[in-house]
Design brief:
Alkaline Phosphatase, subunit A; 2 domains; 9-stranded mixed beta sheet; two-stranded antiparallel ribbon; 13 strands; binds zinc ion
């Protein structure tokens, strides 16, 4: 390619379709989406999605996969996720990469790795362009991933400070979990919900209000009526009554944010990561399916505006080292065994805590606990336990009830239970293993994550991008302005 032709092509890309047409045989006009959906499955590696797809197929008696919405996208590749100062990243560094196009250090929110300068995010730049902006998540709204799109703080644990930056973001829609510390860690700061309302946001906490809000209610903050102590939403598999769903919130966001200047939405499936940390395969599937249902609403919108919509689905990192295949089951798998699990780690561990609280130490019985395990996991009931598996549960029982770590050395204890309730985590792992699923860790891994794309500009995402390339591509396609 001679230099002149190269220059023309470059100009064509920069200035868009008019100049491209002057170049004669120049490539097709650069797409210009107006509606961007950025879905981030926190911790959602390839196996997390494949496991859900394999289970759906098996439920219909088939070996193979039943594709989720996200797997129908024409572009699928993988992105590298490493942080500036550590190969295995965290949600703050990875969220910053996905929001700003810059690598940063572990635990940093929207700032450079030295934590001295804020890095502007594609959400802030979209707002500066006049687009409407929505941020949604199943975990608290000040958690690392959502925070990376509107806040700039040296540490992800500065929840209250992050919350104050939500206030000044000027974004149009927040939805999902609430503030982790609405009045600060010491409960001595002005209430963030009151401050949000004072800024003119409609705060939506009830179903009947949720059903009636419209574009006239913007800006708004949807706070799930049912929140845990950490202000996250319940797991989808627990179907807690009175809870909103992530997909329902996304559907509402599409309805109210649709406008001629376009919108940018970031939607996080935040508890895919939490379930994977807890090695809870059934809860992972529930969260992946719920995120995919939300993606289904985005796809409906895309079909109405195919030339102006771009949908990206990716993850910040993989969690759990999840593999389809486990040493003990060799080449066999039966994912439908996971359907036997009735409650998530959140609910089962809460049940165990309640049992320990109401039962004097001299009265606790292995048989009583095993009845709970049988009801909630099928283990020891319709799913037979081997001697070895029963012994694992017995040991977990002893450790759980005594609070002591027996003769286990620290490393072994970490590998077996980490921070989790020993019986619950042992039951979940036995069930997953019997299904043919293995976890290598309670933490994140450095495996590259899938990137799935459909819509205007999809070709730009091909190859093996770095996670920072994703927001750079979005900014190019949207022609986002640089801002200070
Ligand atoms: Zn995590």
């Amino acid at each position: 390619m001679n230099r002149l032709r190269y220059l023309i092509l470059l100009l064509a890309f920069v200035a868009g379709s008019q100049i491209a047409s002057l170049a004669g045989d120049a490539p097709a006009p650069v797409p210009h989406p107006r509606y961007v959906f950025f879905f981030i499955g926190d911790g959602m590696g390839l196996a997390h999605v494949s496991m859900a797809e394999a289970l759906l197929a098996e439920r219909h008696g088939k070996t193979g996969i039943q594709k989720l919405n996200m797997s129908t996208f024409p572009v699928m590749t993988f992105a590298a996720t490493f942080a500036k100062n550590r190969y295995i990243t965290c949600s703050a560094a990875a969220g910053t990469a996905l929001a700003t196009g810059e690598k940063t250090s572990i635990n940093t929110i929207g700032m450079d790795s030295a934590r001295t300068h804020p890095l502007r995010t594609i959400a802030e730049r979209a707002r500066a362009k006049g687009m409407k902006v929505g941020i949604m998540t199943t975990v608290s709204i000040d958690h690392a991933t959502p925070a990376c799109f509107y806040a700039h703080q040296p540490d992800r644990n500065m929840y209250y400070e992050i919350g104050t930056q939500l206030l000044s973001s000027g974004f149009d829609f927040f939805g999902g979990g609430g503030f982790k510390y609405p009045t600060g860690k010491n409960k001595d700061q002005p209430d963030l919900y009151q401050a949000v309302a004072a800024k003119g946001y409609t705060i939506v906490k009830e179903q009947k209000v949720f059903d009636t809000v419209s574009v006239r209610s913007l800006p708004m903050m949807v706070v799930n009526p049912v929140l845990s102590a950490s202000s996250d939403m319940p797991y989808a598999m627990d179907s807690v009554s009175g809870s909103f769903s992530l997909s329902g919130i996304v559907k509402k966001a599409i309805e109210v944010l649709d406008n001629p200047k376009g919108f940018f939405m970031m939607v996080e499936g935040g508890k895919i990561d939490w379930a994977a940390h807890a090695n809870d395969a059934a809860a992972i599937i529930g969260e992946v399916l719920e995120l995919d249902k939300a993606i289904g609403y985005a796809l409906e919108f895309y079909r109405q505006h195919p030339d102006e919509t771009l949908i990206i689905v990716t993850a910040d990192h993989e969690t759990g080292g999840l593999a389809l295949g486990w040493a003990g089951t060799q080449y066999e798998s039966d994912f439908t065994l996971l359907d036997r699990q009735k409650v998530s780690s959140d609910l089962f561990d809460a049940k165990m805590k309640a049992y320990k609280k109401r039962t004097p130490a001299s009265m606790v019985r292995f048989d009583s606990v095993m009845r709970m395990v049988a009801t909630d996991f099928g283990l020891g009931a319709d799913i037979r336990l081997s001697k070895c598996e029963e012994e694992q549960l017995r040991r977990a029982f002893r450790i759980s009830m005594s609070g002591e770590k027996e003769s286990l050395c620290k490393d072994e204890n970490t590998v077996l239970f980490d921070i989790y309730e020993p019986i619950g985590v042992t039951a979940r792992r036995i069930l997953a293993n019997k299904a043919g699923i293995g976890f290598t860790t309670w933490m994140h891994t450095g495996s590259p994550v899938p990137v799935r794309v459909i819509g205007a500009g999809q070709e730009l995402f091909n190859g093996f991008p770095d996670n920072t390339d994703i927001p750079k591509n979005i900014a190019r396609l949207l022609r986002l302005p640089e801002i200070k």
